[in-house]
Write a structure and sequence with these properties.
single chain, 174 residues, mainly alpha, 84% helix, 0% strand
Length: 174
């Protein structure tokens, strides 16, 4: 439970940082100082390749952190148990009491896995929020569509989902 309190505090802090972006100039100034000469140069060189490159780097870092900051064996066991419960639920679909019991077990397993899977978020949420705010500022000044039709936000969402699934498979992350 202590871990969830820390997680909640970090989430609140990240929201405060995001909300203070416009009213506390030191935050965007510091982020621009770091990212303009690096990520900004990459985007200025080629917005499509640059965006894909940055999404790949961010997604790879978060996937690596997820792999090494979570107990993969425990997560693998929980997922295997949930898979068995799902199979049992299919067999017991005509037995509401049994289905309810199995649903309850599945929920307990999900609640067991949540603190384990959320642990890497503690290390990545604030940099992630700052990166998103920087992207927003960059693409406000440089209104360009990624590959001709994606906004930066939708490009980030789409390509991070695709790359995340690739990296998770390659790195065997559960």
């Amino acid at each position: 439970m202590k871990g969830m309190k820390i997680m909640f505090a970090i989430m609140i802090l990240s929201m405060v940082v995001a909300l203070l972006w416009d009213s506390l100039p030191v935050i965007p100034d510091a982020v621009h100082f770091v990212l303009d000469p690096t990520a900004g140069k990459i985007l200025n060189w080629n917005v499509n390749i640059g965006m894909l490159f940055m999404i790949a780097i961010i997604t790879l870092i978060t996937t690596i952190l997820q792999k090494y900051l979570t107990d993969q064996d425990v997560l693998k066991g929980i997922k295997a148990e949930q898979k068995l419960i799902q199979q049992e639920m299919k067999l017991a679909k005509n037995q509401p009491e049994k289905t309810m019991e199995l649903s309850k077990k599945s929920l307990e397993l999900t609640m067991q896995a949540m603190p384990i899977t959320m642990r890497p978020l503690v290390y990545t949420i604030i940099p992630f929020v700052l990166f998103l705010r920087w992207f927003q500022a960059y693409f406000t000044v440089n209104p360009v569509k990624i590959f001709g039709f994606f906004s930066w936000f939708w490009a980030y969402i789409l390509f991070s989902i695709i790359l995340s699934s690739i990296f998770r498979k390659l790195l065997k992350v559960h």
